[in-house]
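Example record for the data management plan.
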Amino acid sequence: MTSPPLLPHAEAMMDTAADPPYPLAGRALSMLLPALYDSLDLRWSGGHHAIDALRKHGNLVVGFWHEWVLPLSYTLRSNGFAALTSQHHDGARLGSALHYLDVALALGSSSRGGLRGFQDLEKLVHEGNSPVFAIDGPKGPPKEAKEGAAALARRIGIPMIPLGFAVDRSMRLSTWDRMILPAPWGKAVIVVGAPVYPATKRSGDRDAALRFQGALNKATDQATDDLDRCWREGSGTSPLGTSGLTLAAQ
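Corresponding structural encoding:
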């Protein structure tokens, strides 16, 4: 298993001492995710994109598809990220788990407390955190990007980074996005895509969201190809790098 490094802005985390909603469910999930994550034979690719963007801009917007929110959430732990989580009970449970993984949280969604959540997330960015979006959430349609990530990137003036994911064995939950839960001891690849820059005006947010959607689809295709090349074709140990974002460029 490979793990992501401590990113350059990780020490800027906010105090998350207050208990979140659903503390029991959150603690259980926060213990399940590390056990699952640690069982995976995981490789990273393209980490130099994130490192270069962080060094140049200080922060970045990270985006992925909602179906991957469980396996990718743990990669954010204690690493200077902030997430916008839904106030719906399912989103609140996941948010509680992220809280116990030391991810800064803003509560809101497109249907509940969205404006306040967006403002709180922007505040967390100004405090030094990089915001994370499931860009087709909280209710879909699946794999159709909404404009929230593009709008925040424009307001702050930072690029967006797509995370593509592929796993060889998994279960799918009966949720709107058919959320993926990787099978223990499986093989997985995370691809960090090239940065996508936001529009300069609000009228360009939709186009920027579509460009980000295309970049995320490209990163996803690369993750699938890399998984095939490195494991399914018997090529042995992955050449993609062995310590997440910092060494993936080697």
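Summary line stored alongside the record: The helical segments are 23-39, 47-57, 69-73, 89-100, 114-126, 148-156, 205-232, 244-247.
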